[in-house]
Amino acid sequence: MAKLEAKLVTIINSVGKFFTGNEDIPWCDRDVVAGCEREVSEAERGSSDELMKECLLRLSWALVHSRLPDNRQRGIAMLEASLADTDNQLQLREKLYLLAVAYFKNGDYARSRELAEQCLRIAPDWRQAVTLKKTIEDQITKDGVLGIGIAATAVGMIAGGIAVAVFRRK
């Protein structure tokens, strides 16, 4: 358990760095996911519904922050399945945010931005969602500039190849 707590402290520090702009969205390792899965298993054996929901939300957090795409997909499935049963605006905001993180980590920036904007409609000043939305938009801009650079290079190479072919024919 001490090992899991140490890893959680590392993750919390990473989250803090994310909000100050010093680091990307934090990652979570297999040990934390396994610890959260054990928590859910224990909660299934007679705990209150509220405790079970808390454990499932922690597991969802760990899964969407995982480096493993299968874990992120599992987290997305869990969160999307639970959205319909969420009537508390705070819990809805949390789930939408976690979905936005998962889609961001999967490279689906449009869906991620849409979910971050839904969070901001619920809580316009929520710092986590504001920071995530900016991170998403920065990534979209970066990818767009990179894409333009790649396309310009390809066009240049094709034009150069044509010019060389025409020049050789003369």
From TrEMBL:
Component of the peroxisomal and mitochondrial division machineries. Plays a role in promoting the fission of mitochondria and peroxisomes. One of its GO terms (cellular component) is peroxisomal membrane. Gene3D superfamilies: Tetratricopeptide repeat domain. The keyword Transmembrane applies. This is Mitochondrial fission 1 protein. Signal peptide: none annotated. It holds the Pfam family Fis1_TPR_N. The keyword Manganese does not apply. It comes from the Eukaryota. Keywords: Membrane, Mitochondrion, Mitochondrion outer membrane, Peroxisome biogenesis, Transmembrane, Transmembrane helix. Belongs to the FIS1 family. It is a single-pass membrane protein. It is found in: Mitochondrion outer membrane; Peroxisome membrane. The C-terminus is necessary for mitochondrial or peroxisomal targeting, while the N-terminus is necessary for mitochondrial or peroxisomal fission. InterPro entries: Fis1, Fis1_cytosol, Fis1_TPR_C, Fis1_TPR_N, TPR-like_helical_dom_sf. Coiled coil: none annotated. One of its GO terms (biological process) is autophagy of mitochondrion.
